[in-house]
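One-letter codes give the sequence; the integers encode the fold. A sample entry reads:
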Amino acid sequence: MKKLLATVLIAVMCLPLAACDGGTYSRAEVVLGEAVALSVTAKGGSARAAVDEMFALAADVFDGMNLSKKDSLLSRFNAHNSTEPFEITEHIYNVLALSKTAYEKSDGAFDVTSLPLSKLWRTDTDGLHALRPDIEDVIGSAVKSLPTMEDVQNTLEYVGADKLDFYESGGRYYVKKTDGRTEIDLGGIAKGYFVDLCKAIADKHALKSCLIDLSGNLYLYGGGLKSGGDWTVGIKNPRPRLTYSEHFRDYAAAVQTSGDRSYVTGGDYQRFYYAAYGDVKSEDELIAVCHIINPKSGLPVGMEYDAEKAEFKTDYNAVCMAVVSAQNSALCDAYSTAAAVLGLEKGAELLSENGFDGLIFTNPDGGKGKIKVVGEWRFLDGYDKYKTDYEAV
């Protein structure tokens, strides 16, 4: 999950939250399950009509993809243990098409069929809710057992976007599996897809400025809401990891940017739980199990396997946060996950080769992390605190 206050925060201090003031209109609501909230502030043109149209669209887009609802279209497809065609909505079809692009461009690092691995590692929504670390007793709340590598290998047999076929026929849309056990989760790209649709609505209503935030998938439309010029974007430090109140985490950097761009983040800092082997004395000895899964190795990002001990351990060279920026929010969404899976250098190559800007941070636990800057970023002097905790490479 990518949340606004978790990683990327638009620093507009006078931003109204739910008011109509001088042609500016704002609205904020939960639109998917308990965790995904949409907040939109628009100015100029038909601001109110544009914002209300975006909220009306949310139900149309997300209802069929909501895995927290057992009777949603996607939940029923996942339970459909068959290789027969299954009818889907046009929105699901469009997201699958974008997912295929991201899968191919990232050499499989972004893969919407990783849900069985998430369930195995209990990093799906239900598992993470149950295993979330207890701030008062971090060590005591750590999980004492993890899946085996045999479990992982068995699950990988039915993971892979190449096991899906989707098509349009007679104005209707279908998807089918080559293995009935395959399941899909579109959460890593659907939010970006929706944000792109909102951008089209902003065009339609001739807005001057608009800030669209879908749980951290941001789109900055036009000029800044207050000045009409550049926007200021603050980037939260991914560490400390365990914090349920974002004010405990400082900014790693702040940048200035023109409008008509999306900013999306992926990282290990919020949706995770801790695991432990044996008698653990400190939090540093715990293994963080995050929600981003490498669909090739089958392991959560930030973990590696010690074959001699038959145990998992922390990978201190892993990516802990990737911030991706471009005009296409859906692919920013997917590539932020892919960059975390690919690692610092290969993740940077993916972004650079496809014309996306990025900031990729590695795990700073136990020392100083690294940061790779891809593309053009205008850092604000005095707000480039990443230089303290991260070494530019």
User: Anything to note?
Assistant: The CA atoms of residues 121 and 147 lie 7 Å apart. The longest helix spans residues 47-62. Confidence is low (pLDDT under 50) at residues 1-22.
